[in-house]
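Q: Hi! First time doing this. I have a protein sequence and I read that you can turn it into a structure. Is that right? Here it is:
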Amino acid sequence: MPTEGDKLLLKGTESEREPVLRVQQPDGTIHDVSVEELCVTNNVTYQALVTLLVRKGIIEAEELLKEVERVHNERLRPEQ
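A: Yes, that's right. Below is the predicted 3D structure, encoded as structure tokens:
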């Protein structure tokens, strides 16, 4: 996962630049991760976590959906 020290780079030709994060793993290796890859990884991780929580009976799917909607609405609420 990207950390505070990661740098945003631009890769590709002038007409098709894709934002990339340079990420250092705990073992010290460094690799580039595109914004798309980061989004997919976050989505898959979220899906796995939700599946486990529901399967173990820790939370019900409907309860989770309501909370996601509440947080979503709270974050998108216009500042007053």
